[in-house]
Amino acid sequence: EAQVTQNPRYLITVTGKKLTVTCSQNMNHEYMSWYRQDPGLGLRQIYYSMNVEVTDKGDVPEGYKVSRKEKRNFPLILESPSPNQTSLYFCASSLSVRGGHGYTFGSGTRLTVV
Amino acid sequence: AQSVSQHNHHVILSEAASLELGCNYSYGGTVNLFWYVQYPGQHLQLLLKYFSGDPLVKGIKGFEAEFIKSKFSFNLRKPSVQWSDTAEYFCAVNANTDKLIFGTGTRLQVFP
After folding, report:
1. pLDDT per residue as tens digits for the range A17-68
2. Distance CA B52, CA B57 (A)
3. Are residues B49 and A103, on separate chains, in Cβ contact within 8 Å?
4. Mean pLDDT, residues B7-27 taken together
5. Between B23 and which of A45, A103, B51, B91 could a Cys-Cys bridge form, CB atoms 3.0 to 4.6 Å apart?
């Protein structure tokens, strides 16, 4: 089944403790992206990647890191999480954003930073 | 900068009522337009998209949307909603860049 897999689904952590949210897709998509979803603000892009070893900042990249060492994986790293990063995070992949293919989304990771 | 506006933040309807959710974007060139739906506790799923051709696009579950280029709009419609349509709806646009820009979403509640 074609899908984007995120782990974990739920995570509660303390301020300053490094964490990684994994994302993997099995569709051979070149494009991958991370979004955060907050009430009233919709989805805001954190980082995206056009291909292996190519990553770019989205609209809200501060406090986050990503890497794209393999085509299928695009982990999101919070080196020193803070409470304002409490949010619902979605990973997405696409065959081609400019080509009108849209995204396939993962199931989301609800992160709480206390 | 490109932006997407969804003016209806919260819509409440009774079953069988007709639905129209507004979506406007700011970009004068070629665009790809999308509507996504997020059911409670779930991830976003594609409802329909406009890439080119017929501006009236039909999607899943009886939804349709009309691209009106002169109005920079891509409104979502359904003639008769059901309780199971209760969800949050997001409009998104790609304007020949490497990003998909989302609106802030419209929460739809349908009561039996």
Report:
1. 999 999 999 999 999 999 999 988 889 999 999 999 999 999 999 999 999 9
2. 10
3. no
4. 95
5. B91
For B50, nearest residue in chain A (alpha carbons): A100
Task: Report the gap between the CA of B30 and the closest CA in chain A (Å).
Answer: 10
* Tens-digit pLDDT profile for residues B48-102: 999 889 999 999 999 999 999 999 999 999 999 999 999 999 999 998 788 889 9
CA separation (Å) from B66 to B21, B31, B44, B51? 11, 13, 21, 12
Of chain A residues 66-105, which have a CB less than 8 A from chain B?
90, 94, 97-98, 100, 102-103, 105
Tell me how far the alpha carbon of residue A45 is from its chain's centroid: 8
Residue-wise DSSP of A16-83: T--EEEEEEESS--SEEEEEEEETTTEEEEEEEEEETTEEEE-S--TT-EE--SSSSB--EEESS--G
Q: Does B3 touch chain A (CB under 8 A)?
A: no
The four Cα atoms B82, B84, B90, B94 give a dihedral, to 10 degrees, of -90
